[in-house]
Specification:
The complex is a heterodimer of chains A (267) and B (593). By secondary structure, chain A is α+β, with helices and mostly antiparallel strands. Chain A has five helices and ten strands. Chain A folds into two domains: 99 residues, no CATH class; 144 residues, Immunoglobulin-like (Sandwich). A five-stranded mixed sheet of chain A has the order 3-2-1-5-8. In chain A, strands 4-10-9 form a three-stranded mixed sheet. The N and C termini of chain A lie far apart (72 Å). The relative contact order of chain B is 0.10. The radius of gyration of chain B is 24 Å and the shape is globular. The N terminus of chain B is likely disordered. The two termini of chain B are 27 Å apart. Chain B has one domain: Cytochrome c oxidase-like, subunit I domain (Cytochrome C Oxidase, Chain A). In chain B, the strands form two sheets. A two-stranded antiparallel sheet of chain B has the order 1-2. Chain B has a two-stranded antiparallel ribbon with strand order 3-4. The chains are: A alpha+beta (267), B mainly alpha (593). The interface between A and B is large, with 104 and 113 residues.
Chain lengths: 267, 593
């Protein structure tokens, strides 16, 4: 029974590792300027965690195999190094690992959150609400008009609560249900929620950020590959949460300019 | 210490059925009541998970009988999206609170802590009785939300604001359903606070003569440390739940900021903070992970030592590790909030202690594993589940490395990777601890041995089955599969649906295997082989008394403790061990250096 347990653990450990080694299920190709830092950090973590996982399971299996149901006259022994050696080893090995991951990980985090967007980053406002995202571009004046929550009305398609009659800055704002951005252009995303907690998640961009009702949250990134990607909500927001999505179109600058003109004409 | 213990019992033997079995003051009966509650709750939670899994794998499948639970939630047996979320919320709440907290801590702790310290009962038996009945009331309040016309709350066991505070305009179950959820959890917190208030003085003041703190078994240490955590963690969650109720019924705005428009209606609240709820919840929530798992660490150590026939390499180091886990658990809660919108600098501040907590966890695993070296390991149902616990603790623990780092958390947050991580380390490992404890202590609790063949069958199916369920969760998360979706409509999720089907089949089979355990438990309770006083040749005080123990635990004669808790591998008159309460002098070669 003990040997069967040992073999089972080893088989499970190996089978568990295979899909990871073969990348059977993995994140899609990164399309952001910062994503490689996250991917590198992920790979390093995977290597360290993977070795720890396999080593721990194998050791457990080996000791269970070797020391179960011994002869009645067998004498018990203690691991020669004793607890002290294990404590020292854990502090050294895991301590170094923790320091390394902690220190190097700061770089990836800082690239997203601790560095301000550049001055020429393109601002786009994204609003989350049950169960859709809407996007607003500031138009030719480069300024977003103010929001009036009391004017929000889905039936009249005033998704943001804009007062077009009184706010000059709002008149040229372009509101869309799809997010288009130019490739290789830094985007400064201004996030706000009209109702509840939501989140903005694009796997390919390695971006995930919650909307916080009552607060404006800022995020910046640069997409490096033209294509169509899914934006999904990852913060439970009600019965339609599973279906809260939008598309992100990464375009050439020319295509983006044409798209924006077309959308402006439709306002 | 001895005098206090001698005066611990403020009540005589029970004289009526009600006093003996219902409103009992006896810690052992209360422990069994907690165990029964956890068993019923676990079966409810498991059935809910079956329904959820079937729905996720085959979205339009009609689940026979489900329409009886809710005509509107499952017309014709086909689950609606909101009903999926409602069942998911109830599954999580039931499992985290009424199973993973009650069974390892309240059930086994109540039954065995006083006996292991040599006391006749807890110091406040009436508080202890209230502890169970308030917890039970909390369970009934929670389950009553199934009877609401719009069903229970759908906000998940974390109940994030402001979804939990704006009322029924946010969706089905978000009105009275949330109020009942918050009331239930507030009651639960009161119950666990009363329990902690008993556990701490039991450990500190009621130890019998000779029972120094370092002579306490590791299980007793684990319950003591857990009760200290419970005292502070539940004391934060309870008022937070009351604030949620006030937001619903008293017009307050603790968690609702101004200017929210839900369902085209301007919400009449202002001034609240949604992140406040997350801080309050996770200040409880992360220690709660350790409230669920630390008793398991103690229990597994206790069970393994008995079956290894040798003490751990260092009892003291294991105690320090459990203490370190408890202290650090309060400093790491922010890792649940890396992408929540809180200050990104604080993410780094929370990340470091989260990574550091792996050091005591690693030391614990190393001590367990290397203590097996040179042992005379006995394989039985209890030791198999204890070994399985170690394997699961490692598997679930290593994925914590990823989620401890803010940058790596960005793509993994709110995905099935997180679900796999916490199910393995907090759910399955803790359940394996509960099973190990049951197979080990059921003879003492019920006076009957459990069937070993059924126990082993239960282990093998559970061990392989849970790996089949929860390891693929990690893969799904690494592919970006978002959690808490009632169906997978996004393009990128379509290729992952076959994985979900595999998991569902594994979950149904593994769940069915738990019925072997239930049968074994009930059958053994009435028809099992009578258990001797010390079937495992163990050393701690619970094995010094009769099986099952008398109402005052030691038949009116308190033991005196002469030894450390785990004197195995010695030559004594009874075999390779000497009991704590035995005055026999033996020399051991394995005294801790």
């Amino acid at each position: 029974m003990a040997k069967f347990f040992a073999v089972t653990i080893i088989v499970i450990a190996i089978l568990s590792a295979i899909p990871i080694l073969r990348h059977t299920w993995a994140m899609p190709e990164d399309i952001s300027t910062h994503g490689y830092l996250i991917d590198e950090q992920m790979s390093e973590t995977m290597a360290e965690a993977g070795i720890a996982f396999l080593a721990a399971q194998f050791l457990l299996a080996i000791f269970v195999w070797k020391f179960s149901n011994p002869r009645p006259d067998a004498k018990i022994k203690n691991f020669p190094g004793g607890a002290k050696a294990l404590v020292v080893a854990a502090f050294l090995v895991v301590g170094i690992e923790v320091l390394a991951l902690g220190v190097f990980g700061v770089k990836a985090w800082a690239s997203v959150y601790l560095t301000p967007p550049s001055a020429n980053a393109m601002p786009i406002q994204v609003q989350a609400g049950q169960f859709a995202f809407y996007f607003r571009y500031p138009g030719p004046d480069g300024t977003f008009g103010p929001l009036h929550p009391e004017l929000i009305n889905e039936s009249t398609q005033n998704f943001f609560g804009l007062d077009l009659d009184h706010d000059a800055d709002s008149k040229d704002d372009i509101v869309t249900a799809e997010m288009a951005i130019p490739v290789n252009k830094e985007i400064h995303l201004l996030m706000h929620s009209k109702d509840l907690g939501h989140s903005f998640y694009v796997r390919e961009l390695r971006v995930q950020q919650d909307f916080v009702p009552g607060l404006d949250v800022s995020l910046h990134f640069t997409a490096t590959k033209i294509g169509r990607y899914e934006i999904v909500c990852t913060q439970l927001c009600g019965l339609g949460h599973y279906n809260m999505k939008a598309y992100l179109e990464v375009m050439s600058q020319q295509d983006f300019d044409d798209w924006l003109k077309k959308e402006a004409a439709m306002q | 210490m001895h005098d206090l213990a001698a005066h611990a019992v403020h009540h005589g033997p029970p004289t009526s059925f009600i006093r003996k079995y219902v409103f009992s003051l006896d810690h052992k009966v209360i422990g069994k009541q907690y165990y029964a509650l956890a068993l019923v709750a676990a079966l409810c939670g498991m059935v809910l998970s079956w329904m959820m899994r079937i729905h996720l794998a085959w979205n339009s499948a009609a689940i026979p009988g489900l329409q009886l639970l809710s005509k509107t939630g499952a017309p014709g047996g086909v689950m609606t999206p909101e009903y999926y979320l409602q069942l998911m919320t109830m599954h999580g709440t039931i499992m985290v609170f009424f199973v993973l907290t009650t069974a390892p801590f309240a059930a086994f702790g109540n039954f065995f802590l006083p006996i292991q310290v040599g006391a006749e009962d807890m110091p406040f038996p009436r508080f202890n009785m209230m502890s169970f009945w308030v917890t039970f009331a909390g369970f009934l309040v929670l389950m009553s939300s199934f009877t609401l016309s719009d069903g229970p709350t759908l906000g998940g066991w974390t109940q994030y604001a402001p979804l939990n505070a704006v009322g029924s305009i946010a969706g089905p179950g978000q009105g009275l359903g949330v109020v009942l959820w918050a009331a239930s959890i507030a009651l639960f917190c009161v119950g666990q606070l009363l329990g902690s208030l008993n556990f701490i003085p039991t450990t500190l003041d009621l130890r019998v003569k000779g029972m120094s703190l370092m002579r306490l078994p590791l299980s007793a240490w684990a319950w003591f440390i857990t009760s200290c955590m419970g005292l502070t963690a539940f004391a934060v969650l309870m008022p937070a739940c009351i604030l949620v109720i006030l937001d619903h019924v008293a017009g307050t705005s603790f968690f609702v900021p101004s200017g929210l428009v839900v369902s085209d209606q301007l919400v009449p609240h202002s001034g609240g903070s949604t992140l406040l709820w997350q801080h309050l919840f996770w200040f409880f929530g992360h220690p709660e992970v350790y409230i669920a798992i630390v008793p398991g660490i103690g229990i597994v150590s206790h069970v393994l030592i008995t079956n290894m026939r040798k003490p751990m390499l260092s009892q003291r180091v294991l105690i320090y590790c459990m203490g370190a886990l408890a202290v650090l658990s309060y400093m790491v809660y922010g890792h649940h909030m890396f992408v929540s919108g809180m200050n990104p600098i604080s993410a780094l501040a929370f990340s470091f202690p989260t990574l550091v907590i792996t050091i005591p966890a690693t030391i614990t695993v190393l001590i367990w594993t290397f203590s097996l070296y040179g042992s005379k390991l006995r394989i039985n149902s209890a030791s198999l589940f204890a070994l399985g616990f170690i394997s699961m603790f490692v598997s679930g623990g290593v994925s914590g490395f990823f989620l401890a780092q803010p940058s790596v958390d960005i793509p993994l947050h709110a995905t099935y990777f997180v679900v796999g991580h916490f199910h393995m380390v907090m759910g399955v490992a803790a359940m394996f601890g509960i099973f190990a404890a049951t197979y080990f202590w059921a003879p003492k609790m019920f006076g009957r041995m459990m069937n070993e063949t059924l126990g082993r069958a239960h282990f093998w199916l559970s061990f392989v089955g849970t790996y089949c369920i929860f390891m693929p969760f990690h893969y799904l998360g690494m592919a970006g599969n978002v959690r808490r979706y009632s169906s997978f409509v996004d393009d990128f999720l379509q290729p992952l649906i076959p994985v979900h089907r595999f998991i569902t089949v594994a979950a149904l089979l593994t769940g069915a295997a738990q019925l072997i355990f239930v049968y074994n438990l009930i059958h053994s309770r009435f028809w099992g082989e009578p258990a001797p006083d010390n079937p495992w040749e163990a050393t701690s005080l619970e094995w010094s008394t009769a099986t099952p123990p008398p109402w005052d635990n030691f038949g009116g004669k308190l033991p005196v403790v002469y030894h450390d808790p785990y004197q195995y591998g010695v030559q004594s008159s009874v075999g390779d061990y000497v009991m704590q309460a035995s005055p026999e002098q033996v020399k051991t070669e394995h005294d801790e250096k």
